Structures are given as C-alpha cells and as structure tokens.
Amino acid sequence: MKRQQALVKDHPFPKQYASEMLVISRGRGVWLQDPTGRKYIDFAGGIAVNALGYGRRDLARTAFRQMTRLSHVSNLFATEPALQLANRMLADSPFPFAAVFFANSGTEANEAALKYARLHSLRTKGTGKDRLLCFANAFHGRTMGALSCTPSAKYQGPFLPLVPGVSVAPYNDVAALEQTLTGEFAGVIVEVIQGEGGLAEMTPEFARALNTLCRKHGAVLIADEVQTGLSRTGEFYASRSVGLEPDIITLAKPLAGGLPLSAALIPAKINDLLNVGEHGTTFGGGPVTTAVALKVWDIISKPAFID
Ligand SMILES: Cc1ncc(COP(=O)(O)O)c(C=O)c1O
C-alpha cells in the first residue's frame, strides 16, 4: 500500500494541529509503524517522552497489574505505588527536598511550582512581593501561569492578557540578572538547557548568580527539568552539571514511560507553609502512572544506564 493511505486530512482535532497527520499504529524499540505497515525510525520520542523505546513488556505488565488491582482513587487517599515512588524520589535526590507533588504534565508541574513560589512569598515576605522572573526564549508550558512565563509572541499573543507580574530577563546574562532580580520577586523559573528555545546551555556563572541572588532576595528558584531531568543530559538532574541549587525541580516527559505523570519536588520551607486543599489535582500521581514510573526510575537511575 502507498504511504498516502496512512495520512489523515479531515481529522476531528482542533486546527491548532497540523492539517495533515501521519497515523501511527504500532511501536517497538526505536521503530514506529503506520497502518499500512510502513516503518519509520523515531527521532521524536513522543516529544522527549519515550526514553526507553516502544513496546516495553515490563512496563506494560506493571500497568496491567496495577490497573486490575487499583486504577484510581484520587488524592483523597494515598496509594502504595505513589508512596513508594515519592519516597524513592526523595531518597535519591541530591537536593534536600521534603515532598513531591504529582501532576499530569510538565505544564501542570510548573504551574504548581509558580503557585508555590507566590504562596511562599506571601507567607514569608508579605503582600506585593509577588513578581515572577523568567528568561527570553524560555518554554514552560501553555496554561495561563506557565504561558505567562513563556515569552513568545506566537504562544502568548492570541491569549492576552496573561497572569500579571512577570518579568523577562536575557538568559545567561549575569549583569542583567543582578539588575532585575530584587526583593519584589517571589520566584524565578529557568531551564538548565533551553530546549524549545534552541538548546542554549546555562553557564556555571549564571547558575551561581541565580543561587546567590535568589537566596539574597528570598525568591524561590525553580529549575524546569521537564526536558533535561531524568538522566537526559548525563547527570540525573542537569542542575548538578552547572551547579544550580534549585528550591524546586519540575519533572515530566519520560517519568512514567509514556503515561502522563509529572512532579514538582519541593523543599520543607514551602511544604511547611501549605494548608490542606490549597492546591491539588484529580488524576496526578495515580497508582498506574506511579507504578510504571517506579519501574522507569529503577532503570534510568542506575549509574551504568546513565553511563
Ligand atoms: C522545558 C519544558 N517545560 C515544560 C514543558 C511542558 O510540558 P507538557 O507539554 O508536558 O505540559 C515542556 C514541553 O515541551 C518543556 O520542554
């Protein structure tokens, strides 16, 4: 059969997606296959998600077992896989995190982190010190808060006005950071390597300046490691390779081997300020995604795997 037959034109998805899409029906290892049987080597990885490849029976077995045992109870209850994963993430962390907030996408993890920064500032510095700082060419997601910290006319333009109180500084510019970052800021959100922004790497000098200035002004330093975390750059957390000392790290993408799961790792100084019900999500950290993520974590946290 011809390749044409695997293309769908009048699809029922919104027009924000390509008008013509290739239909993918199977995946194994690094290979994808369309319904005509044509094979493709996959260089997209589901936008940096399928770090361990397609068709993993170990992950599938885990998901099946957990789905039949307990599929979902919401965050009104704790489940064994979520407890195990969160404890493991905290135990393995080189940074002193105190709790893990689970959500469903990178955007939602960042949204939570930004909210935590605002809450922290309100409760430690008082009202009005609520500004958020992000950097030129950053990408942190598409909800109103995360989008407000994604300074791109293409992404922001059609949805104005956004969340107020966001400043944008040039990336890797220590002098500009020193000028901009004051006590008015609740938080700073930054990628260690700007992914969507064109693979710009944070310099160790910029990391040092971020550490020092955030500490000095009581601003929460958020490392968006949605794309760089989980061994993707050679270190488990890319923050480590440049000496960044974040208060919060956000993770997503490959965390649950292709299922939707994200996390914001938060410190005691924020966790201790939170009251019941102030933030939450119905699906975040469900037992199926966290059970699979535990398997993924086991594999990708092994030093031999990282090597
Ligand atoms: C650095 C970074 N942050 C956040 C996101 C948003 O993640 P999601 O698409 O899972 O909401 C992305 C997605 O590409 C990203 O690269």
Structure commentary:
- The protein is α/β, with parallel strands linked by helices and 307 residues long.
- It has twelve helices and 14 strands.
- The protein has helices at 45-48, 57-69, 80-92, 106-124, 144-148, 153-156, 174-180, 204-217, 238-242, 268-271, 287-300, 303-306; strands at residues 7-8, 21-22, 26-28, 31-33, 39-41, 97-103, 131-135, 166-169, 185-191, 193-194, 200-201, 220-224, 248-251, 262-267.
- The chain is globular, with a radius of gyration of 20 Å.
- Bound molecules: pyridoxal-5'-phosphate (PLP).
- Pyridoxal-5'-phosphate binds next to helix 4.
- Residues 47, 105-107, 110, 139-141, 191, 195-196, 224, 226-227, 252 line the site of pyridoxal-5'-phosphate.
Question: In a nutshell, what does this entry contain?
Answer:
This protein is of the alpha/beta class. 35% of the residues lie in helices and 18% in strands. It has a seven-stranded mixed sheet, with helices on both faces. The protein has a three-stranded antiparallel sheet with strand order 3-4-5, with no helix packed on it.
Q: What low-confidence regions span 5 or more consecutive residues with pLDDT below 50?
A: none
- Helix/strand-derived class? alpha/beta
Ligand set: pyridoxal-5'-phosphate
What is the N-to-C succession of helices and strands? EEEEEHHHEHEHHEHEEEHEHEEHHH
C-alpha geometry: globular
Largest sheet features: 7 strands, mixed
Helical run tally: 12
For the residues shown, what is the average pLDDT? Answer: 96
Query: How much helix, percentage-wise, in residues?
Result: 25-40%
Strand order of the largest sheet: 6-14-13-12-9-7-8
